[in-house]
Design a protein that fits this description.
about 70 residues; mainly alpha; two-stranded antiparallel ribbon; about 10% strand; rod-shaped; PFD_beta-like; chaperone
Length: about 70
């Protein structure tokens, strides 16, 4: 099965189209993973900053933190 691009004499075979589709799916997945990695890096930095802040606290003052959350 051959596909034709509009206003062009270029032929795209079914196999080529399958390769293009596979590449597009993998490329989209790669971008999603890059976005997730960036999000995780930001979360890690926030946690490291919070840990540093806790270490710098005076020993006399209690550190407030939530024990659990309840959603109704």
């Amino acid at each position: 099965m051959n596909f034709f691009l509009q206003d062009s004499d270029t032929q795209v075979t079914f196999e080529d189209q399958q390769k293009i589709n596979t590449f597009a799916r993998n490329n989209a997945k790669l971008q999603d993973l890059k976005d997730e990695l960036e999000s995780k890096k930001k979360e890690l930095q926030n946690l490291e900053d919070a840990a540093d802040e806790m270490l710098m606290q005076d020993g006399d003052d209690p550190i407030p933190y939530p024990l659990l959350s309840i959603n109704y």
